[in-house]
Amino acid sequence: MDLEIRQELFGESPEQADPAAGRLASIDALRGFDMFWIVGGYYIFAGLHKAMDVPATAFIKKQLTHVEWEGFVFEDLIMPLFLFIVGVVMPFSLNKRQERGHSKLRLYVHIIFRTIVLFVLGMVAAGNLLAFDLSKLRLYNNTLQSIAAGYLIAAVIMLNLRISRQVVVTAALLILFWALMMFVPIPEHGAGVLEQDANLAQYIDKVILGRFDDGLNYTWILSSITFAATVMLGVLAGHLLRSDKKEGAKVVLLMAAGLGCLVLGSLWADWPVGFGKLAPVTFPMIKRLWTSSFTLFAGGLSFVLLALFYLVIDVWGLKKWAFGLVVIGANAIFIYMATHLFSFRHISDPFVNGLDLFVGPWKELIHPLAAFVVIWLIMCYMYRKKTFIKI
Asked: Which residues in the chain come in under a pLDDT of 50?
C-alpha cells in the first residue's frame, strides 16, 4: 500500500511507516507501559493483593485506586500519560508531513479527520453510541475524547507558533484554566468553588451537554483547556527528542523539565508545601477537574518516565526487555477499543479454571494474569504481522 495512503488511513507516523526514519523504541515502550495498566495491570495486582494480603500489596492496590477528589496516586497518572505521549509523537508526525511539502490545509484536514474519529470512538467506547438510544447517549465522557480535544488545540498551536511561543501558550492555558475556575462565579455558589457537586467546569458541562452529560463529577468541556496543556507538554518533549542535541543533553533536559513541573505543580497545589493556602492562588490537584496543578504534576512524572525510558532503551540500547511493552504500545488505540467493547477478563478461563481446586487464593492472580497473556499474544501476533491500526 502506498506510504501516504497508509498514513492517511491508519495514522502511521512516518517513523513507523518508514523504518529508515529512525523510530524511537522508547516511545512505543512507554505507551505500552501505560496501556498495560489500562488493559490488565489493575486486575493483576488486585489479584496479587487478594492472594497475599500484606502491607506491600495493600499499598500497591491503594496506588491503583483513584483518589475520590483531591490528591494524587499512581492510577491518576495513567490517563495524562496517554495524552502526553500523543503530544510527544506530534512533532515527529506533523513536522515530517510539512517537510514532505504537505500544505497547511491538507494538514488541517488530517487533524480534523483524526479528531472526529477519536471523538466518535470515544462515544462508542463509553458513550453508549451503539445502544442506539438517545436517552443513554453520552457526548463527551471518555479518554479518547480528551485526547481528541487536546490534540486539536495542540495541533493548531504547534502549526502556527514557533517553539518558544508554544511554551508561553502552554503556560497561558494553565493560568487561564485556573483564572476561570477561581474567578468566574456560578449560580448559587459564587466564584472559586471546587466542590465535587459545585464548580464552574461541572456547571458548564451540565449547561452545554444537558441530558447527554454523564452525571458524574468528571469534567470535560472546560477541562479541554488543560487536556491541551497536557498534550502540549508532550509536544515540547517531542521537540526536544527530535532536536539535534546530544542524547545525554536530551535526557538531562527531559529530567529537568520533569522535576520542574513536579515542583511547580506541588507548590501550586500547596502539596506538600506551597503558598500557605493563600486563596485563590492555591489550586488543588484534582484529576476529575484536570486542574492546572494536576496537569503540571502528572506532566512532570511523564517527563521523568520518558527520560528514563529514552535513556535505557534508545541511549543505552537495552531494548530486548521492553519488547513486551512495545508490542502493546504499537497498537494502543486498537487494544483500548477492544477492551472497552469486549470483556477479556474471562477469556482465559477455559485454560485455567481447572487449576482453581489446587491454587487456593492464588486463583485471584492467575485468572487476570492469564487473561492478560491472551491479550498480549493477540498483540504480539499483530506486531509480528506488521498490522498496526492507528488513527
From this structure: 1-22, 274
